[in-house]
Fold this protein.
Amino acid sequence: MNKYTCSTFHLNKFTAVFILLMVSSKVYCFDVYTFVPWKYYLEKGELHQTKNLDDYLTQYGTKKAFVIYPKGMFTQDKPDPVKIEKVAKLSRGNSDALISFDIEIGNKIKPETILPTVEKTLNLYHKNNGNNLVGVYGLLPQNTVGSNFQRSKYSKLNEKYANIASLTTVLSPVLYNYDGEDFEKWKISADFAFEETKKYSNTHKIIPYLSPIYKVKRRTDNPKGFVIKQLSESDMKKRLDYLKSLNADGVLIWESSQSIEFDKSQPIFNPYTGWGKAVIDTVKSR
């Protein structure tokens, strides 16, 4: 091997190694977004009260999600341009936040009662230059509400909602704990939801809704709220790890402000144990 051949060989070898390193350096990113309007959290053994737990959680590396409920976008059940302009402005001021419209209006089994409202809402949002990280709750794919469902029924229904994909950049399967702690039943819902989501996902990010609790019973003093049980660290970790194995781009941890514990106390976020620790550990391991 002459000097020229030797130099070329080493150059090609170096180039190949460089390309390999560049490809392998693309780290899988799993972002954790939160919408948990609880009032209390623990820090270093002390109980603290907060007006916005999501703001506090960002110190651990989470990102904020803004779930927009009907009163934040509608007037008399119709998209309100002024309210939606405010949502767009909110998104521009929080460029790394996720905007998710919760458009629970009409009859989900009859897309014609919902889709025109969804399309008008999203078009108004885009017209006002809203942040491009935007999705819709529970419509594409449809929420199966647990593991006991008819696959063909939901597949056909999802086809009718396909246009939502053209107006969003995020698709969010809803993976709540309808079957309690049962992980195997939860996986049935997750597998089907991701199978359906990927039919409509092109450049979309797949960021499912995930609840850190399961409902035990409805509150007797507040029909909008439930008595809850928080997931253990192990139960939450299994769910988060499984979402990663399905190549989710992240997760939106959602909970209600109307939840209470068995003893009627307000739930407390704990970063040192339970589901809170699983979430924080997931963020740190990205």
About this structure: The longest strand covers residues 63-68. Helices lie at 3-24, 53-57, 81-92, 115-127, 151-160, 183-200, 233-245, 274-284.
